[in-house]
TrEMBL record:
It comes from Bosea lathyri. It comes from the Bacteria. This is Uncharacterized protein.
Amino acid sequence: MDIIVKQSNSTTWVMIDLLGRPMGEVVEQPKGEFTIAPCGSAIGTTSGLKLSSFSSLDAALAEVERHTRGRCRMVSGAIAPASEEP
């Protein structure tokens, strides 16, 4: 599963799938320690994923890639939210 990653502020990066559904975020807290916080349908997808104590954003995203067998792609600018289903 490929994931799009975008920095939302100085310590948080949001993750969405290619359909625009939220997958969670990576948060730097405290400085120099990164934690993965899955949300929505990603909670089941990331079962068994190591979630905390990464020394860099790259290390946290590499763990997501390893677990999902996909790629994390960094983007800049706005990310369009998933469309609402009736």
